[in-house]
Amino acid sequence: MTVQEDRDALLKTAATLRAQGRIPDALALLDRLEAAHPTFSRLYQERGHCHVLLRNTPAAIHALHEAVRRNPTLPASWDMLEQLHRLAGNAEQAEAAARSLATLKQLPVAIVVANSLFADGDLAQAEQVLRAYLPQNPQNVGALRLLARIRTDRSDPAEAERILHAVLDHAPDYHDARLDYALVLLQQQKHAPARTQAERLLAQDANHRAYLKPYAAACVGLGDYAPVIDVYARLLEDKTLSAAEIADLRQWRATALKIVGRQHDAIADYHAALTACPDYGVAWFGLANLKTYRFSDAEIDRMQTALARPGLQQMDRIYLNFALGKALEDREDYAASWHAYAQGNALRHATARYRPEAAEACVQRLQHTFTPQFFAERAGWGVDDPAPIFIVGLPRSGSTLIEQILASHPGVEGTQELTEIGRYAAELCGSDPTCGLPLHPEALHRLTATATRALGDRFLTETRPYRTLDRPLFIDKMPNNVWHIGLIHLILPRATIIDVRRDPMACCFSNLKQLFGTTNQEFSYATDDIARHYRCYLELMRHWDEVLPGRVLRVQQEDVVTDLDASARRLLAHCGLPFDPACLSFHETRRSVRTPSSEQVRQPIDRTSLTQWRHYEPWLAPLRTALGDALTTYRS
Predict the structure, then answer these.
(1) What is the rounded CA–CA span in Å between residue 246 and residue 250?
(2) Helices (H), strands (E): how many in the chain?
C-alpha cells in the first residue's frame, strides 16, 4: 500500500467510525492521521464533521477553517462553515463562507476536483482529471495554469514553461499565470527572461511582495545586486513581518551587500538578522564567511550557548559549527576550531548524497568517450569565437584570485560561476543523482556538426545578459566545468580554458572548513570523500592533457602567490591580451564577487594561505594517507 493509499484508508475508516457513532474513536484516528499527514486538508474537514455531531461548535469551526486554509476548494467545508457561523451569530463570517461556496459552484466540477486533489498533493489524480477535461475546454486558462503547476511539482518545469507560455499568449493579463511563469523560469535558471516577466508584473503593481521576490531572485541569478539591496529594504518596510521573515530578508540583503563590496553595511545587516533571530545559524555563518570578520568573546559565547541547546534546528547547528570553527581559528585555538569544523562536517555529510565511487566511474566514462579520434573527427566544429574564458579546478583552489586578476584587465569581464555548461551536459548526457556528474557522455557521439554549433551559439546567447560591461572577453568561473572540458572544446574550440590548481593538503583542508550552499560540492564534507575527489580531478586533468595537448593552461596557486607579476603576464599572454598594470592591483578592482573568497580578493595577496593548513596537521593524518601519491604528483 502506498503512503497515499494508507492516508486515504485511514480517512475512510475515520468516516466509517463517525457514521457508526464512535466519535471518540474517529477523533483519535484523525489525530494519528494528522501526525503522519499534517497538510492533508480532508482530515480537518472530517474532524469538523465529528465536532458537529458532538455539538462542539467552536471546535468544528476551528477544524473547518483549518481545512479551507489548506484547501480552499472544499465545498462541504464552506457549506458547514456558513451554517455554523449563522448559528453562532457571526453574520459577516457566514456571508464570507457563502460567497466562497457560491464561487466554487460557478466553476466546472472537474476544476474544483482537480484543485482539491492538487491542494492535498494528489498530483497524478489531479492531472488525470485535467487531462480528461481540457480536450473539451482547451482555452480554460485556469485549468491550464493548474496543469502547469502540477507539472512543476512533478519535476517537469520545461513542460510547465511551455503550458504557461501558451496561457499568456492567450491571456496576457493573467497575472497569476505570469507569476508562475517567472517562477518556473527561475527554477530552470533562466534568469534573464524571468526578470523580464517580473518587471512586467511590477509595472502593474510596483509594491506587490509576490512580484518583488522573483524580481530579486532573477537579479541575483544575473549577478545584478544593486537593485536587490533596495528591493530587500522595501520588503523590510512591512511592519507585519515575523521575526523569521525579518531575519531572512536581513541575511539576504547582507549577502548582497557583501558581494558588491559594502562590508560594513553587510555586517550591520547580519547583526540585524541575529537581533531578530539570535540562533539564526546562516547569519552567524555569513559573518564568518566574510573571512575578515573577527568575533568578540561575547559572540563566541552566544554561538557556544546556542550549540548547547537541544532544540536547535539541524541546519542552524551546521551553520553555527562552521562559524564557530572560523571564530576559534582566528583565536588560534586550533584544537577547538577543528572540533567545531569536524562537528559541522559530520552533520552535513549525514545529509549528503555524494558517493566517491560515482565520481570515479564518471572519470572512466569520460576517458572512454573523449578520445583523440573523437576530437579529430570533429575538428572545425563549434563556434569560432574566442570570447569565453573558462576557469576550472576544484573549489578553494584560488580560482577567484585568477578571475579577479583577469577581470582587472579592461578587455575582460568577470561574470560569475555560470551554470549553462553543466545544464547542457545534463540535457545531453543525463546526470548522476548522487553527484550531478555526466551519466552517459557517450550520447555526445550523436551530436551533429550543426547541433554542436547551435549549442555554442546558445551558450553565447544565454550568457549575454551577464556581460553588462560588453568587454571582448568574459569569464565563466564555474569550477565544476572541469568535468565538461571535452564539451567546451567541442562547442567553443577557441575558448580559453585555465585550470587553477592548489597543493592538495591546502586545497582539501580549505574545502573541509568551508560550508557550501544547498547541495553544492557535497564531496567536501568528509576526509575520504574530498581526497578521492581530488584524485579524480588529477586523473581527469591528465586525460584532458593527453587528448587535447596544450589546450588547458595550468596555473599553480602557489606560483601566483609567490610571483604575481610573472603569473599575471603568463595569464594575459595565454588569453592574447597585452599586459596591464591594473592586474597587479586586482584588489582595487570594484566588482561583484559571489564566492567565499570575495573579501580576500579585495585585499593584497596574503602568503599565509600557503601554510594555513599546517595549524591543523595533528588532525589531518587521515587526509594525507587518503591523498596518497597526489601529494607528489599534483604538479606534474
Answers:
(1) 6
(2) 32, 5
Query: CB 244: neighbour CB atoms within 10 A?
Result: 11
Q: What secondary structure, in 3-state letters, does 43-108 show? A: HHHHHHHHHHHCCCHHHHHHHHHHHHHHCCCCHHHHHHHHHHHHHCCCHHHHHHHHHHHHHHHHCC
Residue that has been written with the C-alpha cell 581526497 in this structure? 531
Amino acid (1-letter code) at residue 36: A
Query: What is the model's pLDDT at position 636?
Result: 81
Q: What is the pTM of this model?
A: 0.83
Fold of 3-153: 1.25.40
pLDDT band (50, 70, 90) for residue 598 = very low
Residue 475 near residue 403, CB atoms below 8 Å: yes
Cell of 618: 595533528
CA angle 464, 467, 469 (to 5 degrees): 140
The per-residue b/e assignment along 428-440, b for 16 or more CB within 10 angstroms, e otherwise, is bbebbeebbbbbe
What is the enclosing helix (H) or strand (E) of 105?
Answer: helix 91-106
Q: What is the 3-state secondary structure (H, E, C) of 564-581?
A: HHHHHHHHHHHCCCCCCH
Sheet with 473-476: list strands edge to edge.
412-416, 473-476, 388-393, 496-501, 552-556
Domain with CATH 3.40.50.300 in the chain: 356-502+554-604
DSSP-derived 3-state class of residue 416: strand
pLDDT score at 605: 77
Domain with CATH 1.25.40.10 in the chain: 3-153
Q: What pLDDT digit, counting tens, does each position of 84-106 carry? A: 999 999 999 999 999 999 999 99
For the segment(s) 356-502+554-604, the CATH number from 3.30.420.10, 3.40.50.2300, 3.40.50.300, 3.30.499.10 is 3.40.50.300
Please say if the pLDDT value at position 592 is more than 60.
no
Q: Express each pLDDT in 430-450 by its tens digit.
A: 999 888 899 999 999 999 999
User: Quick check: helix, strand or coil at residue 306?
Assistant: helix
pLDDT tens, 114-167? 999 999 999 999 999 999 999 999 999 999 999 999 999 999 999 999 999 999
Closest residue by Cα to residue 315 from 282, 354, 352: 282
